Amino acid sequence: MSNLGAGRVLRKVRVQTRCGRVAGLLAIGEQVRTLDDVNLGSTRFILLHEPAEEEGTWGFEPGPLAINTAEIVFIFESEPPGAFSVNRLAASRKSRSRVRLRTAAYTIDGVVHIPPNGKALIRLRQENRTFIALTEATVRHGDSVFETPFLAVNRDHVLAAQELPLPAPETATVGEETVGATAGGPSRKA
Question: Does domain 2-77 have CATH number 2.30.30?
Answer without folding.
Answer: yes
